[in-house]
Amino acid sequence: MDKIIIKDLEIYAYHGVLPEEKAKGQNFILSAELFLDLRESGIMDDLKKTVNYAEVCQDIYQVVTGSKFDLIEAVAESVADTILLKYELIKSVRIVLSKPEAPIPMNFDTVCVDITRHKHIVYLGIGSNLGDKESYLDYAVDQLGKDDYIKVNKVSSYITTKPYGNVEQDDFLNGCLEIETLYTPQELLSVISDIEQGAGRKRLIHWGPRTLDIDILLYDREIIMEEKLIIPHIEMSKREFVLKPLCEIAPFAYHPGFNKTVMELYDILKGDVDVSDILETD
What we know:
CATH topology of the largest domain: Alpha-Beta Plaits
Number of helices: 8
Structural class: alpha+beta
CATH architecture of the largest domain: 2-Layer Sandwich
Low-confidence stretches: none
Strand content: 25-35%
CATH class of the largest domain: Alpha Beta
Radius of gyration: 23 Å
Distance between the termini: 27 Å
């Protein structure tokens, strides 16, 4: 991806663990790489198609001087968040923050932190089969959209489906969302768990009735296998109530485990083809 480079901004600020660092201040040096598509702005010679780097520099200055942090890690994180949240065109940012006057009792050039942060495209499944089902799904969409670190891009139609598993219960209302987020998968899992609890979700019976269920289906093209988090969702390729609404909003979203698009998986499921038969070994 293309990038705009802002190199070696010198900013006097008041960050550090020691009291004198916050009292007297010192110089900090910051460089930023902004990753975005510059082709259209280059062809059209139009500032509206790119990012005004003078404005970005001012934003960086406001963040670095606006608060007093103990750690330069926290300063860099705050700068990265500010840029990614404000500028829609910027998809990733790299921040290198140096502290050349750090209180180290020996000769050195500088101490710095170097972080890269991204916007992530994530697909979620939502479902409910208790109470006012549609209201619970709308609640999930609304709560996700209120989070500063989440942007809801697309919401599918809601469909009524039969319950999965052997527990006798009411039909489900299901849907899918596409979101853009700064959260890591683990952070996002915590956020959606809080939203489920806010809707009165109780995990009493496996595959049992619930007011609100939110599942992370796909997170970029990552494969994660952890005790509490598996991405892509392990059951999504077998479930029409996931693939049908997901196909509506993201037919070409890619399943990295099966090397198939959502549309391909949905077509295979409708044709009663065993998903294990289509695993690619290359």
